[in-house]
Write a structure and sequence with these properties.
Layout: E1 8-13, H1 18-25, E2 31-36, H2 46-56, E3 60-63, H3 70-73, H4 77-98, E4 102-108, H5 131-146, E5 151-156, E6 159-160, H6 167-175, E7 182-186, E8 190-191, E9 194-195, H7 196-208, E10 219-222, E11 229-230, H8 231-244, E12 253-257, H9 277-283, H10 290-309
Helix pairs in contact: 1-7, 2-4, 4-5, 6-8, 8-10
Length: 310
């Protein structure tokens, strides 16, 4: 008699983002994944979210949706708080009504002020410097105060992918500009670049070990790739690997500058490295060095580029 294997189901919000794209690509074979973007669901409509959870009956909900335009958020604070706070409250309330459903909500290093000089622990006090960080911190509070069993806040930083818009692809585009001979890149803001695939794999690791989420109420963890870098270090590595893998064909000067020389309406943390050890221990997964991850992503991007031009 054949053994029937019942697949678990995940419902992912934020379909069009780079994280959701990687979640779909890396989904384990024993999971069915339904991803929804703003065309399919209005996360400000609590009733719609409840109906979707009733319809799909997921074992796990992943909120990868957010307002992420850091500078624009200073001009659109109401919109940022709507998507980063109120939508989280709606999702949490809908999950609470369903019972034993895991919820993983993705947050950011920008909830911290950058005043530390050692990696931030999950229980360190938040003190965001800008509207984006404040709206994400408010979303965390919405989830924490509901204290749902099986809910997890996963903070990350400096996310990039071969899909969508991000720092890596912007740098490669600018470095390919034949009329450009240099770039000025901030060297006094320190964090950790994170491949969205790495973040997706961490989320699936938590999902596969879903029972560990139900050992108490809402919990906060951190996940990024390993190591530290400035934006300047990140840009230098992008150029070196872009040249190695044929995505760019010229080397330009990359100049380190202090953040105050870069025109921006937004204050950012000067140090936002996150401590990942709790997540590594809880879910038996190991971080990988950020530059190795960047190398893998750029190799992937080079193959995709080659395939589209042949």
């Amino acid at each position: 008699m054949a053994i029937s294997h019942v697949k678990r189901k995940a419902l992912v919000f934020g379909k069009n983002g780079q994280l959701a794209w990687e979640l779909l690509r890396t989904a384990p074979e024993d999971w069915d994944v339904v991803a929804m973007g703003r065309a399919e669901v209005d996360l400000l409509d609590a009733d719609m979210i409840e109906q979707l959870l009733t319809q799909h009956d997921p074992d796990l909900v992943v909120n990868a949706s957010a307002y992420t335009a850091v500078d624009q958020a200073e001009l659109e604070a109401e919109r940022a708080f709507a998507l980063n706070q109120h939508a989280v409250a709606n999702i949490a309330d809908a999950v609470a009504k369903r019972g034993a459903v895991g919820l993983i909500h993705v947050s950011t290093d920008f909830v911290f002020d950058g005043e530390k000089s050692s990696p931030y622990q999950a229980d360190d006090e938040t003190a965001p410097l800008n509207v984006y960080g404040k709206s994400k911190a408010a979303g965390e509070i919405e989830l924490l105060k509901r204290n749902l069993p099986g809910s997890l806040i996963l903070r990350t930083s400096w996310v990039y992918s071969s899909h969508g818009s991000n720092f890596v692809k912007t740098m490669l585009r600018l470095m390919s500009d034949e009329g450009r001979d240099h770039l000025n890149i901030i060297a006094d803001q320190i964090g950790t670049p994170t491949w969205a695939r790495s973040l997706a794999e961490a989320i699936w690791c938590a999902g596969r070990n879903r029972e560990r989420l139900f050992t108490g109420g809402a919990r906060i963890f951190h996940w990024t790739d390993a190591g530290v870098a400035s934006w300047y270090d990140f840009a230098v590595a992008i150029q070196e690997l872009g040249l190695t893998h044929g995505l760019i064909n010229q080397k330009i000067s990359i100049n380190p500058i202090p953040h105050h020389q870069y025109p921006s309406p937004t204050e950012r943390p000067s140090f936002s490295v996150l401590d990942k050890s709790d997540f590594e221990q809880q879910f038996d997964i190991q971080t990988k060095y950020w530059r190795h991850q960047l190398d893998s992503m750029i190799q992937e991007l080079a193959l995709e580029t080659k395939a589209t031009t042949e």
